[in-house]
Amino acid sequence: MVRLNETVIWHDVECASYAADLALWQELAAEAGGSVLDVGCGTGRVALDLAAQGHRVLGIDAEPALIDALASRARAARLPVEGVVADARSFDLGRTFGVAIAPMQVAQLLGGAGGRAAMLACLRRHLEPGAPFAIALADPFEGEPGEQVGPPMPDVHEEDGWVFSSLPIAVRSVAGGTAIDRVRQAVSPEGELTESMTSVELDDVTPDQLEEEARELGFEPLPRREVPPTADYVGSTVVILRA
To answer: Which of 66, 98, 125, 191 has its Cβ near the most Cβ atoms within 10 Å?
Structure first.
């Protein structure tokens, strides 16, 4: 499509502008001290912000292109962020952290309870004693019946003369989760339009359910936190687990 990497571009279009949760991650990192593990870090939306606050951050993501973008941005900004290509369900970094975070809907992209259990087991091995693991969970329907929920506003991003737009056209229930269908459009500097469809499925999991799964693996649930909705994004409940 363009010389820019499509994986990076669409991640930035659909995720990079979200900022409603940053203050919470900053607070948790400051309280915990030590280094931060950012699970599902993408291109560094949270990792770079925390590094700019003085924290040393390691981010993991399964997409090599996203980790490459994170590393490039960290070098350009001279920030102490390390990126590692790894699956949240099976990573082994050989070190422990003072706090771990899983922003946005990372924990709802793991393929169900088995994937969450594998992630929790990995995190348990990578946390210092007493360190917290904070996990954001979102309800795309915001407690309303699916048929009454309209799609959100489009996400738009401009880069090198290109205009990228990702328009959610449907939010629907599927077996075990919720699917969000999007139309992605790219307009070149010459005005040429290309269009594609994509769909993301989020696992249905409640905070109560996640906390019970975590207890079975040796975590202690702490008081939850809330990230309020914005005009463009649903809110989330942040489950906090102590190792």
So the answer is: 66
**Beta strand 177-187 with 36-39: parallel, antiparallel or unpaired?**
unpaired
Distance CA 218, CA 160 (A): 49
8 Å CB contact between 102 and 134: yes
CA distances from 159 to 5, 10, 73, 98, 186 (A): 12, 12, 15, 36, 11
Beta-bridge partners for 184? 166, 196
Can you spell out the DSSP letters for 143-163?
TS-GGGPPP-PPEEEEETTEE
Decide if 21 contacts 136 (C-beta within 8 A). Answer: yes
Q: What is the pTM of this model?
A: 0.91
Give, for all 243 residues of the chain, the pLDDT tens digit: 445 789 999 999 999 989 999 999 999 999 998 899 999 999 999 999 999 999 999 999 999 999 999 999 999 999 999 999 999 999 999 999 999 999 999 999 999 999 999 999 999 999 999 999 999 998 775 554 444 445 566 788 888 889 999 988 888 889 888 998 999 999 999 999 999 999 999 999 999 999 999 999 999 999 999 999 987 788 999 999 999
Q: Does the domain made of 146-202 have the CATH classification 2.20.25? A: yes
- Inter-residue contact 231 to 154 (CB < 8 Å): no
Q: Domain locations in the chain?
A: 6-140+204-242, 146-202
**Topology, domain 6-140+204-242:** Rossmann fold (3.40.50)
Check: CB of residue 237 under 8 Å from CB of residue 137: yes
